[in-house]
Write a structure and sequence with these properties.
69% helix, 2 domains, MetI-like fold, globular, 310 residues
C-alpha cells in the first residue's frame, strides 16, 4: 500500500530543486565575479605589501606598510583627490538635476513627440567615446571652437577659455559629461511613471499647484530613484579620468587642474609600471568610495521614502 506524500514534503523538495537550478544558472556570473573581481582585488591587496615594479628586475620583497606611508605623504595624490572633489562638487548636482528636470518635461502630458526626444537622448551612446570627447574638445577650444564663436556673435566680448583655463575647465568637463545623460533621463522617467496619478488628482482637487505637488508628492516618491542615481554618480565621480586622458593625454593641463586621482592611479600602473603603489592607490580609493557609500546608505533612512515601509 502506497502512502501519500505530505504536501509540505513535496513543496520542500520542489523548493530545493528550484534553488539548485537557480545556482546552476547563476554559476557563470558567480565564477566570472570571482575570477575578474574578487580574486584580482585580493591579489592587488597583497601587492600593497610588496615592492613590485615592472620597470626593473628587482626581486619582489615584503615591505610591510611602506607603500601606505608613501601614500599618506604623497602631495600629488592629495592634489588629485582635491581635484576630483572640486569637479564632483560641480558635476554631481548638475548631473542629478538636469536629468531629473528633463524627465519631468518629457513626462508631461502636454508635450508632443516625447518618444522622439527619449530616443534622441540615447544617440550619444551610439557614437564612439573617444570620437565624442575629441569633437567636444574641438567645440570648446577657446580660439577656434564654435561655442565661443557663438558667444561672441551674441555679444560676449571675452568668452571662457573652457578646457584651456583652470577656472573654467570643470564647467567645460561638465558640459562634455551632460552629453551622456540619456540613461539618467530614462531612469527618472521610469520612476515618474511609477507614481500613481491619483495622488496628483487628489492634490489638484485640494488646490495644490505644480510646486506643491512636486515638493510633497513627486520628490518624496522619487527619493529611491534619486538615492540610486546619487550613489552611482558619486562612484562615477571618484572613478573619473577618461575624458581628461583623451583631451590632453593625461598631462593634467591646464595647470594640473585635470590631474584627477584616478588619472594619477592610471599613470602609476601603466606609465610608471609601479604595481605595488598603484594597487595601494586603488585600495585607498576603494576605501574612500566604500566609506562614502556606507554613510549615504545610513543617511537614506532619514530622507528616502519607500511606500511599502511607512
Amino acid at each position: 500500500m502506497n502512502l501519500p506524500i505530505p504536501s509540505r514534503f513535496r513543496q520542500s523538495t520542489l523548493s530545493r530543486r528550484e534553488a539548485a537550478w537557480g545556482y546552476v544558472f547563476l554559476s557563470p556570473w558567480i565564477l566570472g565575479f570571482l575570477a575578474f573581481t574578487v580574486i584580482p582585488m585580493v591579489v592587488a591587496l597583497g601587492f600593497t605589501f610588496t615592492n613590485i615594479q615592472l620597470a626593473n628586475d628587482s626581486p619582489v620583497q615584503f615591505v610591510g606598510l611602506r607603500n601606505y606611508e608613501r601614500l599618506l605623504g604623497d602631495d600629488r595624490m592629495w592634489s588629485g583627490l582635491l581635484v576630483t572633489l572640486k569637479y564632483g562638487a560641480i558635476a554631481l548636482p548638475i548631473g542629478l538635476a538636469v536629468p531629473f528636470a528633463l524627465a519631468l518635461l518629457l513626462n508631461s502630458r502636454h508635450l508632443r513627440g516625447s518618444s522622439v526626444f527619449r530616443i534622441g537622448f540615447f544617440i550619444p551612446y551610439v557614437v564612439p567615446f573617444v570620437a565624442t570627447v575629441l569633437i567636444w574638445g574641438g567645440m570648446l577650444n577657446s580660439e577656434t571652437g564654435w561655442i565661443n564663436r557663438a558667444l561672441e556673435f551674441f555679444g560676449v566680448d571675452n568668452p571662457p577659455g573652457w578646457i584651456d583655463d583652470p577656472g573654467w575647465v570643470y564647467p567645460g568637463l561638465v558640459i562634455i559629461g551632460l552629453w551622456g545623460i540619456g540613461a539618467g533621463v530614462i531612469i527618472n522617467i521610469a520612476g515618474l511613471r511609477s507614481i500613481p496619478t491619483e495622488l496628483y488628482d487628489a492634490a489638484y482637487i485640494d488646490g495644490a499647484g505644480w510646486w506643491a505637488s512636486l515638493r510633497h508628492i513627486t520628490i518624496p516618491l522619487m527619493s529611491p530613484v534619486i538615492f540610486y542615481t546619487l550613489t552611482l554618480g558619486i562612484i562615477e565621480v571618484l572613478q573619473y579620468f577618461l575624458v581628461p586622458l583623451v583631451l590632453n593625454n593625461g598631462t593634467g593641463e591646464p595647470g594640473g587642474s585635470t590631474l584627477f586621482y584616478n588619472l594619477y592611479l592610471y599613470k602609476q600602473f601603466f606609465l610608471f609600471q609601479n604595481m605595488s603603489y598603484g594597487a595601494t592607490l586603488a585600495w585607498f580609493l576603494f576605501a574612500i568610495t566604500l566609506a562614502i557609500t556606507l554613510v549615504l546608505f545610513w543617511s537614506s533612512r532619514f530622507w528616502v521614502y519607500y511606500a511599502g515601509e511607512r
